[in-house]
Design brief:
The chain is 24% helix and 20% strand. It has 241 residues and is an alpha+beta fold.
Length: 241
């Protein structure tokens, strides 16, 4: 798997000897048990719901809790010095439909990320990656970014986590994401979303209309829909609950 380094270094002085010694002692004497099961890795892109021009690459390290619930820690890279930038909770369509309407507005749909090929599990063999994407089909995510560390291609991040947490969303049409984002990721990490998009087309038949697909549509007037990604409200219905 190709390394993807963070786009910036946080503010602050280098570690002193006391902190290095503390880390060694903690490694020897303490346990990081809660982190050990965050071992499913996918990388995708997030726009801010209220400011969709603010777009970021997000590296998800996930813990599969059960068939309907996944927890993810979000980083701006996949190396040891990656910055923690947020969290995402992922729930099944079944759990989404148990939520009250005012809560559902925080949860973005995932079908475009799956069917477009933009969500990738680096290093997984193609059959295993496709099985993972089939599991994510029709699911929803609630994502908060606590630190805008900028873009790998353009920079522009903050060297400390500033301001309020930002609710992030998903892209749901071709032409919503800045093509430079994906190009930079693919060139640097050696990834290719195009064949994945082709390989996942048979999942389209299992894709249900989802809520939230049209949320960013007016912000990207030149964007275009793809098969299998349909707004539940515009369709006048939704998939099985």
């Amino acid at each position: 798997m190709t390394d993807r380094r963070s786009p910036l270094q946080p503010a602050g002085d280098d570690k002193g000897l006391w902190l290095s010694a503390l880390e060694l002692g903690a490694k020897a004497l303490q346990s990081a048990t809660p982190l050990k099961k965050f071992d499913v890795y996918v990388v995708g892109f997030h726009p801010a719901k209220d400011d969709p021009a603010m777009q970021m690459e997000a590296h998800h390290f996930c813990r599969v809790v059960n068939d309907d619930f996944i927890q993810a820690t979000l980083f701006d890279g996949n190396t040891a010095d990656a910055n923690l930038i947020g969290i995402e909770y992922i729930i099944s369509e079944k759990l989404f439909h148990t939520l009250p309407a005012d809560e559902q507005q925080y949860w973005h749909p995932h079908n475009y990320e799956v069917l477009s090929g933009s969500l990738i599990a680096p290093g997984l063999p193609a059959p295993a990656e496709k099985a993972l994407m089939k599991r994510l089909l029709n699911s929803y995510g609630k994502t908060w970014h606590t630190w805008h560390t900028g873009r790998h291609d353009l920079g522009g991040g903050n060297t400390l986590p500033l301001g309020e947490p930002m609710l992030m969303w998903s892209f749901n049409r071709d032409g919503e994401s800045d093509p430079r984002l994906e190009q930079d990721r693919e060139e640097t990490m050696g990834l290719d979303s195009a064949p994945r998009r082709e390989q996942r087309q048979d999942l389209t038949a299992d894709a249900h209309p989802q809520h939230g697909v049209d949320v960013l549509r007016d912000s990207f007037p030149g964007s275009s829909p793809i098969p299998g990604v349909i707004d539940a409200d515009a369709a006048g219905g939704e998939g099985p609950v």
